[in-house]
Amino acid sequence: MFNNQQITDLPQHKNIEFKALADKALLHAQLNWLVFYIPFSAILAAICYFNENFANNAQTYLLIGMPILILASMLYSVASIKLQGVAMRQHDIAFKKGIIWQRVTILPLARVQHIEIHRGPIERKLGLASLKLYSAGGMSADLQVSGLTHTDCKNMRQFVQDYRQEQTSTQAVPADE
């Protein structure tokens, strides 16, 4: 007989103890912003050089606006990285992020189908990596955690693989033939 009882004491995700990202995660985020702003500034400088009318009209805005925009981006990355955290638990992985709109994503390990470790050139130089976890039925990563050390990513991947292997071995039923 099917029984569906009411749950009164729900677990609180606020009780999760999140681990901060790697020390160099902030440097990585700020370098990524600079990789965007340096070519952007060069393009604006070239436009100003070849279009004197645009330069005369936009000079004040660019001289004031660009430093403010770059400073705001750097401050945003400081706040964003400080508020991010990851937690590996016995049956799931949790990741929190967000400054204004805060989000906690909890992915059950039993649903993980595929794991990737991604390392771009800046990440390799800093000893960092990103962990991407995919669950069944999706083309994009269900959870992506950037700013972890490469060692942490490898350990987390191994933990998830061990968990999945343990789950499949306990679910296997020996044949009675």
From TrEMBL:
Pfam families named in the record: bPH_2
This protein's record includes keyword Ribonucleoprotein: no
Membrane-spanning parts: 34-52, 58-79
Domain YdbS-like PH: 89-143
Keywords, alphabetical: Membrane, Transmembrane, Transmembrane helix
Classification via InterPro entries: YdbS-like_PH (IPR005182)
Name of the protein in question: PH domain-containing protein
Organism: Pseudoalteromonas marina
